[in-house]
Predict the structure.
Amino acid sequence: MPSPRSAGLIAAVMAVTSVAGVSSGTSRFVTVASETAITSEAASTSEAGSQAAAESVEAAKEPSLTALRRQAQEAYKAIGDASKQLDARKKQFDSSQKKLASKLRQLGKANQELAAMRKPLSDLVESVYQNPSATGIGPLFAQGDGTATLRAMSDVDHLAVGRNKVLDDAARLLQDKEKLAAEAQDLRSANLLEEAQLDHQVDSLRAKSSDLVKSLTQTLTKMGVKVNQGHRGAGACDPTRISTAAQYPNGLLPKSSLCPLPQAGRELRADAAIAFADLNLSYQKKFGRQMCVTDSYRSLASQQAVYYARPGFAAVPGRSNHGLGLAVDLCGGVQNSGSVQFNWLEANSKRYGFIHPSWAYSNPFEPWHWEYDPKLGAGV
């Protein structure tokens, strides 16, 4: 039987061992739990990353409104360039055809002159050989000391040589004419082939431009833009028709040349409207709401009303970019210079072709006024 002291020592050792065992088990439990939590978090992070990557890939599949607009305008410009090439090629061909026709006329005239020269000479030589006595030269062959005969024979030889020369010239001219005719045929064939290729190129570009414009219109419609509002026609939001809008005087643009904005009742020229809609999407992602617009396109009558209502704060009627459908006045914080909204717009608007003009910083001071720059918007 162990002594009290030994019993106490044994009890102490057992207690320490027990505590160590519990501690070890707890440690293993904490380690496993921690590893499980890390694994779960990593899985969650991985899943979130995959989802973000998928969303990024999906976004990459859908080009922005700005990209679609630029592509449509580039395709339309390419149509113009190809058409110019076609017109230039036709003019070049017409010029070549005129030169060729002139040469052929010259050849025809030369042939007629040669034929006129050849006929009497040929007739005379044939008459000498066939019936010498009928020409007046024949008797010389039969009498005298032979001098006259030799002279007559020399004349006949001279006539024969002249006749041969005329025939050789005619043959050479005929060869030249045939060569020119062959060149004309080759030129015509090459022109028809190039014309067909250019026509096909123009048709392909037109189809591409039409598809891009259709995609733009559909995208705008999905965003809630009433493209055909007021029966203006879908062409009002066609960025390839801005040259038509540019032909109208300031403040007198028809509805068919103005594209509605996502903000009801507001409108701009097609290229500016599409760029603004794209800018509006980015603004909405940043601030959780659409851009606030107080004014956009202004008719000449509206410009006059604003000019007289706010003297010194509006352009002379007929000179405002509002009248060209290229300017907007904003609110919702943007109207305050230095605000978060103003600073964000100042930092990001140029990517969409919009600028805050230098004059609006001081004379007069209009932080709410923003304009679309077509060259900047086109990526020039």
Summary: The chain has a mean pLDDT of 75. The beta strands are 258-260, 267-269, 292-295, 327-331, 354-355, 369-372.
